[in-house]
Amino acid sequence: MPAATLLCTKPFNFRNQCIIHGRQNNSASSQNAKWFGLKRKVQKKSLQLERHYLCDVGRWRPGFITRTGGGRGGGGVDSIIERDDKLRKLIQGMLWTAEGVYVLWLFLLPYAPGDPVWAISSETVNDLVGLSLNFFFILPLLNAGGVHLIEAPVLHPMAEGLFNFVIGWTFMFAPLLFSDRKRDRFKGSLDLLWGFQMFLTNTFLIPYMAIRLNKVDLEYPPRATSQLGSIMTRGASIVGLVGGAACLLSTFWAIYGRGDGDFGNISDRWEFLLSYLSSERLAYAFIWDICLYIIFQPWLIGVNLQNIQEDKVGIVRYLKYVPVVGLVAYCLCLDLKDEY
Questions:
Q1: Is residue 74 scored above 90 in pLDDT?
Q2: 75 pLDDT band (50/70/90 cuts)?
Q3: Across residues 71-83, what is the average pLDDT?
Q4: 99 in any annotated domain
Q5: Element (H, E) at 124
Q6: Are 257 and 337 in contact (CB under 8 A)?
Q7: Does 138 reside within a domain?
Q8: CB distance 161 to 251 below 8 Å
Q9: Dihedrals φ, ψ of 298, to 5°?
């Protein structure tokens, strides 16, 4: 039998009576007990929802909040939610400002080292093509092994090392982005976003970091994971090993690579790097990317620790602050039992 429908506009009337399915019931004590039981359930459910929300924003502490109207610590749920909302909007504003500065300073304005996009030189284009052909040092290593189907362009090892270091780090962001718990707040294609980030510039990651802070859109259903996203998350350990190896090889290549060429010792290569950063817009942009990754890596890993295998959460929590290493740890310890 379905539960009786309660049709009353107030919990108690002057005669302590309610109407149930049109019949008068004079058993006030029975109805009062039911009302108090229902009220307790509603209050308990409300408190659970409040705690769930606060856990999501990472601000709830057990014992601090007891009810909506207040609590120790000078606030209550409403006050904390309001502060969190202001903080969220402040961070979003800072990220959008950073995006504007990134685009203007690195792409359009002539004040940064090197040439802006609208006045890029042919020499810079040739260097970019050469660096792309030496992606992950595949061609140079094949040539060194005696395979000469395509000859690798000979560029300064410091330039090659810096380029592949940033690319290797970017490569490992794929499993992190495709397993991000707030990725559905970005309505665009994550495949395209990561592709642009990987092969063009880091400018696409900054808007994502801002958009993922939007409030949940309850009318927007969760998206199914794309084929690329599934490959990157299920193969996260491989992605982490390849990306980590590329970053490690890039470091050694920058210092010791092409030893048979006329690129000098470590001191000479360091002087070249400083000159390279102060004269080439591409190299200068890579330094910006590295600085942003140092911020975004622990941020994204920290809010996605629930994706990590339970016995590995502790080590990932500490390693997330170490550039590159923290992202390698995330990829290797990603829990593949979860659906992303």
A1: no
A2: low
A3: 68
A4: no
A5: helix 122-133
A6: no
A7: yes
A8: yes
A9: -65, -30
Count Cβ atoms below 10 Å from residue 337 Cβ, excluding itself. 6
Share of the chain above pLDDT 90, in %: 55
3-state secondary structure (DSSP) of residue 334: strand
For residue 89, being part of any structural domain is answered with: no
Helix axes 190-199, 227-234, angle to 10 degrees: 70
**51 contacts 57 by C-beta, under 8 angstroms:** no
CA–CA distance, 155 with 123 (Å, rounded to integer): 12
Domain end point (choices 35, 52, 69)? 52
Residues 114 and 280 sit within 8 Å (Cβ to Cβ)? yes
Per-residue pLDDT for 201 more than 80? no
- Amino acid in the structure at residue 25: N
Q: How far apart are CA 253 and CA 3, in angstroms?
A: 74
Q: Is the pLDDT of residue 282 over 50?
A: yes
Q: Do the Cβ atoms of 182 and 212 come closer than 8 Å?
A: yes
Structural domain count of the chain: 2
Q: How far is CA 312 from CA 171, 245, 278, 294, 334, in A?
A: 22, 21, 41, 21, 9
Distance from C-alpha of 193 to C-alpha of 189, rounded to nearest angstrom: 6
For the cut 50, the answer to whether the pLDDT of residue 147 exceeds it is yes
Contacts of 180 (CB under 8 A, 6+ apart): 212, 300, 303, 304
Q: Residues 52, 56, 57, 63: is their CA dihedral positive or negative? A: positive
In a domain, 151, yes or no: yes
Closest CA to 293 of 162, 173, 132: 173
Question: Where does 49-89 show beta strands of DSSP type E?
Answer: none
CA gyration radius, the chain: 28
Statement to judge: residues 38 and 118 lie in one domain: no
Q: How many other β-carbons are positioned within 10 Å of the β-carbon of residue 151?
A: 11
State which residues form the domain around 6.
1-52
Q: Which two tokens stand for residue 110?
A: 């002539």
Alpha-carbon span 182 to 75, nearest angstrom: 27
Say what the pLDDT of residue 5 is. 38
| Domain co-membership, 321 together with 244 | yes
Are residues 296 and 211 located together in one domain of the fold? yes
